[in-house]
Amino acid sequence: MALVAAGFSLFLVSCATTERAVFAPPEIDGAHYVGNRTCADCHTNIARVFPASPHARLYRAEMKMAGDSGCESCHGPGSKHVQAGGGRGKFILNPLQDPGLCFRCHLDIHAEFNLPQHHPVVENRISCTQCHDPHGADIFKPAGGLAMARQNQTCAQCHREQTRPVVFEHEAMREGCTVCHNVHGSINAKMLIQRDANLCLKCHAQIQSSTGSLVFIGKIAHQGFLRHGTCWSAGCHTAVHGSNMSQQLRY
Questions:
Q1: Who wins on pLDDT, 204 or 112?
Q2: Which of 10, 24, 83, 113 places its Cα 20 to 30 Å from the Cα of 18?
Q3: Would you say 174 and 165 are in contact if contact means Cβ atoms under 8 Å apart?
Q4: In whole angstroms, what is the distance from residue 251 CA to residue 239 CA?
């Protein structure tokens, strides 16, 4: 009976959700941990700005396991890197080449990158650090520190056509691409937060007439248009990022 109870308890623990993930720090064969101060001797520019980064909050000198926090929790033990005199990629792990180093902590983001529509990070075609500064050097970033600063400008590095200046702008662009897109991944085409007209109606509220037969968006009756699909796929507002031709966002 006790054996059954113990097995049942083990089953419950194995299915429980813990408050934090438990994992081993990254390893480099033959290397040991040297600590943040050793890293700071050479990487002075990063050491100067890193205390302002949310990643710096994870550092605690009294952590029981070496490499649990600080520089080496992402870059691996640095002794062989130091012995080699430093150098890019010499006996050191770099999230720029391996997004898996970021995914060790950011498990929820890793899951989003495995959705049907996603930026090709898991395919190693782009990296997390192309959009995020893990050391927190960009003072223009929002209070969170690691969220994308100047969101449209960050996206514009690749998506130039969608972020070009236009005569008639879509006001949503002022708030950033993430108003409509989940930038890590989505089940919807084009990584949209929602795939139907409800995405547009989050901002463009619809109002029904007293009889319920008319649906107004802005000051225009839309009940006939809504039957044909989403605002853009119905052929009405196809230039969703802005237009040089029409205030109604048409090409």
A1: 112
A2: 113
A3: no
A4: 6
